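User: Hey, quick favor. My workstation is busy. Could you predict this chain's structure for me?
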Amino acid sequence: MDEDFAIRVEDLGKKYIIRHQRSSGYLTFRDVLSERVQRAGRTLARPLTRGEKSPSVIPSREEFWAVRDVNFTIQRGERVGLIGR
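Assistant: No problem, here it is.
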């Protein structure tokens, strides 16, 4: 590996926390049914193991990784442009 670099980045990541909000402060029967049907479609690929329970509440937050485990080096004299925040 050439040690003549100006910048080295290892294991760079950007994670967003997405918060799901409900307009009302309670779960309706329709919300529960809709969530169960969606979850049933996902569990066809992986059935629950013995003793594992299917959660009945839609999570209020979710993690979303936009970038994960990115590595790069920028050599001396190279030009780099950054776009965004």
